[in-house]
């Protein structure tokens, strides 16, 4: 009897364990949303659950208690002084088109909005060099942002063609006899009409020797890939000026992007007394509600702190072991671990200015330069790594910070929702209408806006990355010391014109190629 009871007890115990095990197995299937964070994406998601503590608490406390200095504020917001340079895009006499085109030129552009923008400018220049008819460039789907927006979704194609009508012939689509020349056609086999190995920063002679014969033999040539495929040096002045004409005059955004951008600028200049993002009729609001309110000044901050940037930098951003593992896994997945910065320590990277500024750090920079907590700040960013948890410290320093979501309703944003290129286009437009533009880290958006604002003589603050990296390593630095170093270190980094040097981009440094000294 005792043996029978013992066996029954063991059986019941095993049965309970089996039921518990089964429950553990099926529970995630019944409630998958509770467990998605621990699947293949867990390192990234888990790191964002751990709210990073401020890394520069001593400086942050002083920044939050800073006082407003009236004289300093007026200097900050003063427009950039006339530097004696004027835009120059060539002769006032309209150029004449050649009587006969050598054929059709297609280009396939990858990258984000601003990389594609530069590629479009280069495509026009190459078409001019080859005496070819340019087909409106094809924009590839970005593998990171998965945005399928076309040229005509982003840029005003009729304006583009009209501005350049005397420079090169441009068509929206190929004629029927060449309709076979598509991206899919070139993806399936080696084709005689595809130029696959155009070198980076190729010379004009390279195109004349390698692409012109293809055009003359086939009537068409397709270049893919085409990013950064034209040199910045040793080109005729008319070609350089044509590139700037495309960038600064021909490329304007489609009307709905400009209308939304105007609405955002208006709301930054004239903050409404009622709740934000409530009206969907932003065109009427933009034109009719100025009243007697004085327009306010605002800063656009491009906070380039996405996951790609954070991972590729190989820097430590204070998110602990989970964040380090998440970024290391991402580096392995995207670049197979081949990241040059990985061989350096965080201290070495920061002392060399190779770490992107976190939202906290760029907030401290702006506060040290003299921007007070009444400053209207527009945050131009697609996606900040770590989300609101990362941004919260910056928001404490600048409580009047805005972005697209806070300024515009979901109905107003419906045409740009989920479209990285259109979102970036809105930010670019607002950035070109701000009093001051600041980019937290170098990149294509930084380069494009620095060049465009230089062309228009507008104030732009370029963070001194080396100085900032070294100061942030000093945990004993006082606010007064930090503030003095920031002011002195940025006196000549607020839009002062810099002449282009060999190999530098004409789109970032438009002088002297596209500007003349008056």
TrEMBL record:
A Pfam family of this chain: O-FucT
UniProtKB keywords: Carbohydrate metabolism, Fucose metabolism, Glycoprotein, Glycosyltransferase, Membrane, Transferase, Transmembrane, Transmembrane helix
InterPro entries: FucosylTrfase_pln, GDP-Fuc_O-FucTrfase, GT106_glycosyltransferase
Pathway: Glycan metabolism
Domain of life: Eukaryota
CDD domains reported in the protein's UniProt record: O-FucT_plant (cd11299)
Claim: Membrane is one of the keywords in the record: yes
Similarity-based family: Belongs to the glycosyltransferase GT106 family.
Protein name per its UniProtKB record: O-fucosyltransferase family protein
